[in-house]
Specification:
521 residues, mainly alpha, Growth Hormone, Chain: A
């Protein structure tokens, strides 16, 4: 390198970092992530209306959700290799474009084609989040990665909360087709900003695609996602058992293949790092509390309190607002103190929130949920992206794109398992409490003056409603335990600062990076 070029490069490295230098790329990435995450929750509330408008059945149209999720689960494992091979910028932009085109097609489709176009949407949307996380990590200075990841994480927690509000409003006052059409201007803006503002992150010299891994990985994660989502209805159903069996066999084969090939699709050897493994487990446990709150509170409001989709979305807005406020704060604090205290405090707040939610009754109002939901949002905001960034820092920097795909693929399965598991617990507690309530109503009917039929029906309804509310209390109690376990695991994380990444030597290859993975201390 010429002396002048070397001096210029050193001057650029020594120049102070300013947020505005990456604000345009950050906006492009946030637009893409927000659009994809928002669409997933907005579509769910439209299913009853779709059944009516398309003259179909709910089991058939449920594949609008299932097909989308399976397509995402299949493409996520490939996102890291594609990003390394062809560059993060083209992969991200093509994914956003594919999602946008799929959205327009969904808006004009009938019931049969809607499912196919949702799969197309999922293929585009599945790659957006893992590529976005790796993108932000790679363009951020090591001592500012937490702050930028915190900003990028806002739509990840904010969008799921406002999705039902937007979807409910569009279904009630406009048309379900606008849930998809709204993505067209957003997608076009995101693509324009991305083309102009996203830096061309250099491609990595990678070997040919791991063909066996490229088949087994998507098959394993898609089948497991299908199996655990079906488990929310019945763990003994044929489709549940088939999905879990195929997924488990494919996953075992995938692990064997990935540990033997020289250039695997997903680098599973990062699990040699005790700190990485602890952080992943803490993330999984935290997801039980995170997705439990996002899933159970709306179900409680609709089934016990009789709220509609739009009013339910409004009721859970405090959680979204608190998450949006505390997410950037968590990112800034991560750059100063690392993830350990943020994960512990964040999941501690989530535990306090779920404890308060475990006190809900048939008379609970939306205003009664403001404090627990705000605590949940604050806790999630403090710990979510710092823990994700800690996981990135716990792995060799050369593997960031593969680690992002790996963690997102695992999250897809774990989030489905969390919802299915909590659904199973809730159903079993409802069965037990309702049986007790029915027995109590029968006993009341045999003691004292015989009640009229109307009185007996009203008594049974009140007792069953209270029984369902008690079942939610029990299920929220399980989430308290999960959050406390996650907080305890947070205490075991290594003190990991973003500045550490700047001092680590960059290995020539991923395999050379593996010995540098540190255990927790």
């Amino acid at each position: 390198m010429a002396p002048g070029t070397a001096a210029q490069g050193k001057a650029q490295d020594d120049a102070p970092f300013r947020i505005r230098s990456v604000i345009v790329p950050l906006i492009a990435i946030i637009i893409g992530v927000f659009m994809v995450v928002l669409d997933g929750t907005a579509v769910n509330v439209a299913l009853p209306k779709l059944v009516t408008d398309l003259h179909s059945t709910l089991p058939t149209l449920q594949w609008i959700v299932t097909g989308y999720a399976l397509a995402q689960a299949a493409v996520i494992p490939l996102a890291g290799w594609l990003s390394d091979r062809y560059g993060a910028k083209p992969v991200f932009l093509i994914s956003v474009a594919l999602f946008t085109v799929g959205s327009v097609l969904c808006a004009t489709a009938d019931s049969s084609m809607l499912i196919a176009f949702r799969v197309l949407q999922g293929l585009g949307g599945g790659a957006v989040l893992p590529v976005a996380i790796a993108y932000i990590y790679r363009i951020s200075p090591p001592d500012k990665v937490g702050a930028l990841m915190g900003m990028m994480g806002v739509p990840i927690l904010f969008a799921p909360a406002i999705g039902p509000v937007l979807g409910g409003w569009l279904v009630q006052y406009a048309s379900w087709r606008y849930i998809f059409l709204i993505n067209l201007p957003v997608g076009i803006i995101g693509l324009i900003v991305g083309v102009v503002g996203l830096p061309a992150v250099g491609r990595t010299a990678v070997a040919a695609l791991d063909r066996y891994g490229a088949v087994l990985g998507p098959l394993a994660f898609a089948a497991l996602s299908y199996g655990v989502s079906s488990g929310a209805t019945s763990w003994t159903a044929t489709n549940t058992i088939a999905g879990l069996t195929i997924g488990a066999v494919a996953l075992l084969a995938f692990i064997v293949v990935e540990l033997r090939v020289a250039n695997p699709l997903l680098e599973l050897r990062v699990f040699r790092s005790l700190d990485f493994s602890l952080a992943i487990v803490a993330q999984w446990v935290g997801q039980v509390a995170l997705f439990g709150a996002l899933f159970l509170v709306p179900v409680f409001l609709q089934q016990v309190r009789g709220f509609g989709a739009f009013n339910t979305g409004l009721a859970i807005l405090p959680q979204a607002i608190a998450a949006a406020v505390f997410m950037p704060i968590g990112g800034l604090l991560f750059d100063r103190i690392g993830a350990r205290p943020l994960v512990t405090v964040g999941l501690g707040l989530v535990a306090a929130s779920t404890y308060l939610l475990a006190q809900v009754t048939v008379s609970t109002q939306a205003s009664d949920l403001i404090l627990p939901l705000a605590l949940a949002g604050a806790g999630m905001g403090l710990m979510f992206m710092p823990l994700t960034t800690h996981i990135m820092n716990a792995a060799p920097r050369a593997l960031v794109t593969r680690v992002s795909s790996l963690t997102n693929a695992l999250q897809q399965v774990v989030s489905g398992f969390a919802i299915a598991g909590l659904s199973t617990i809730l159903t079993s507690r409802i069965t037990a409490h309702v049986a007790t309530a029915v027995a109590a109503a029968g006993a009341a009917g045999h003691s004292g003056p015989a009640p009229t039929q109307a009185v007996l029906v009203r008594l049974q309804h009140e007792l069953v409603t209270r029984a369902v509310a008690l079942s939610f209390d029990d299920t929220f109690g399980v989430m308290v335990v999960a959050a406390l376990i996650g907080a305890a695991l947070g205490l075991l994380l290594r003190r990991n600062h973003a500045t550490q990444a700047a001092t680590e030597p960059q290995p020539a290859s991923a395999m050379e990076a593996m010995p540098s993975v540190q255990a927790a201390s």
